[in-house]
Amino acid sequence: MEPKIKQTTGGEQAALLIRATDFSGMLERLDRMAESLSEIRESLPLKRRKLSRATKRAHIGCILSWYEGKCPCCREARIISDNGSILPSCNEEHYVNRHENALDKTWLVCQECNSRKTTGKVAHTDVEALFRAYQVTLRKHLADGKGPVQMRLKDSDRLCALSKRQATSR
Ligand SMILES: [Zn+2]
């Protein structure tokens, strides 16, 4: 009986040894996976930051006052209605990168212009000139006291509600 017991014990020890080897192998694999994950995280594109309500209000005001509610890029497509609501064709564009959501790094353009830019159908230098021109107009608009702070409460409330509705519909 005794050898049989010893054999069993030996077998159990062997099994434990195998499990211990498996375990250390697993730990090594986990370490390698953690390393890969941090590399992947570092190479991911920057998170898209939404435009703040104040930023949107400033863009809306400027486009209504200076562009007749039309896209500042093509000046053809209507993107803001007369009462200041954002039309479905309006796109928030992060001009610099998805992470930069400040007033001077963004604008509102029509769907067509947005896709033309992202697909490279329009020269970057052309859009650049239009964007710079828009930013000059925007600064003038804000300097004229037509910025979001100076807007009537009724208007700003309505625009906030519209911005919210647009944000939830995405
Ligand atoms: Zn356009």
Task: Write up this protein.
It is a single chain. This protein has 170 residues and is mainly alpha-helical. It has two domains: 1-44; 53-168, no CATH class. The protein is built from five helices and two strands. Helix 2 (53-67) packs across helix 4. 20% of the residues are buried. The protein binds zinc ion. Zinc ion binds next to strand 2 and helix 3.
State the gist of this model.
With 170 residues, the protein is mainly alpha-helical.
List keywords for this structure.
single chain, 170 residues, binds zinc ion, rod-shaped
Specify the overall morphology: rod-shaped
How many separate domains make up the residues?
Answer: 2
Please mark out the parts with pLDDT under 50 across 5 or more consecutive residues, or reply none. 149-170
Rg, Å, rounded: 29 Å
Q: Total number of helical segments?
A: 5
* Share of helix, binned: 55-70%
> What small molecules does the structure contain?
zinc ion
Give a short account of the largest sheet: 2 strands, antiparallel
Distance between the termini: 74 Å
